[in-house]
Amino acid sequence: MAYRVLGRAGPPQPRRARKLLFAFTLSLSCTYLCYSFLCCCDDLGRSRLLGAPRCLRGPSAGGQKLLQKSRPCDPPGPPPSATAAAAAVPASRLSGANHSGSPRLGTKRLPQALIVGVKKGGTRAVLEFIRVHPDVRALGTEPHFFDRNYGRGLDWYRSLMPRTLESQITLEKTPSYFVTQEAPRRIFNMSRDTKLIVVVRNPVTRAISDYTQTLSKKPDIPTFEGLSFRNRSLGLVDVSWNAIRIGMYALHLESWLQYFPLAQIHFVSGERLITDPAGEMGRVQDFLGIKRFITDKHFYFNKTKGFPCLKKTQSSLLPRCLGKSKGRTHVQIDPEVIDQLREFYRPYNIKFYETVGQDFRWE
């Protein structure tokens, strides 16, 4: 009898172990299915209540660590071509490479405002200062679209632009536009509502600065006096030299006024930009129709360079000053040459003052 009792009690041991093993396996399977339901994009994950997939993608997705050892699941649905097309939108939001953009990252748009001139007037300073404003996104390089690259088309031009939100302004700077005969018409054809910024400076000082920059790159060029005059003794200025021609502002402005009203063009004083950067930038912000965010608190005067720089901000550990090529010492020019050039520019300056309604006091 003892044997039979033991014999009856013995066999349940393996059955009980098998039941425990089965229960454990079932538990693991359920756990795996739960994680699969949460982490894979299938039809069950497309909740009608939520109106969006429950698939967790990207490095920040919850459960990423749990899936590191598992092979990602592919959602059932349309053919691969249709799937790729449908996936293009969310993927582009992560990469920022799509043309149309997304509400979070913005869209690449043609610029609503342009800094069109003038060379060596202070355009780089205006660009760097206005980029501090949260409502402005500006291209850092000069695309030269409306003078050198117009044949590439507007789609190419748009592709260069930074992404902007609906509330932001897209802006670019190319100073040579102001003296390019075709630029006003081309910009007008892009948008007749484009706002134009022109940074002007005493044309004599501007010419000397232009020459100084060229001399640093080409030390063998003729003297400033030699390039400025066809016949100095007769006072005949060589207007074919670009450094001289750029400063004839009234002449170039005529081309722009054929397409744009004066109210759509804002003139920045290069001199006041140095002595009162906050004031000049305040007027630029007013012209662009944005709040006066850039104020005195953003600037400090750099005595070494001789012009204002941006103070350190929360996003920058160091103050932002223009590069080494800005603020270089000008070459010394014979005072008589400077006087002759002042006389040459006087009628152009007076006409310019009268046209724009501002006296820049260059005489």
Polypeptide structure, described:
The protein has 363 residues and is of the alpha/beta class. Helices cover 42% and strands 11% of the residues. The strands form 4 sheets. A 5-stranded parallel beta sheet has the order 3-5-2-6-9. A two-stranded antiparallel ribbon has the order 1-4. The protein has a two-stranded antiparallel sheet with strand order 7-8. Helix 11 runs parallel beside helix 14. It is globular, with a radius of gyration of 34 Å.
Fold blueprint:
Elements: H1 2-9, H2 12-39, H3 64-67, H4 80-95, E1 107-108, E2 113-117, H5 123-130, E3 136-138, H6 154-160, E4 163-164, E5 169-173, H7 183-190, E6 195-200, H8 203-217, H9 224-228, E7 229-231, E8 236-237, H10 242-245, H11 249-257, E9 265-269, H12 270-275, H13 277-288, E10 299-302, E11 307-310, H14 335-356
Parallel strand pairs: 2-5, 2-6, 3-5, 6-9
Antiparallel strand pairs: 1-4, 7-8, 10-11
> Which spans have pLDDT < 50 for at least 5 consecutive residues?
1-12, 32-100
Structural class call reads alpha/beta
Name the helix and strand elements from N-terminus to C-terminus, one letter apiece.
HHHHEEHEHEEHEHHEEHHEHHEEH
Overall geometric form: globular
Number of helices: 14
Q: Oligomerization state of this entry? A: single chain
**Average of pLDDT:** 79
Q: Got a strand count?
A: 11
β-strand percent reads 5-15%
Measure the end-to-end span. 130 Å
Instruction: Trace the largest sheet across and list its strands.
Output: 3-5-2-6-9
Largest sheet: 5 strands, parallel
Helix content: 40-55%
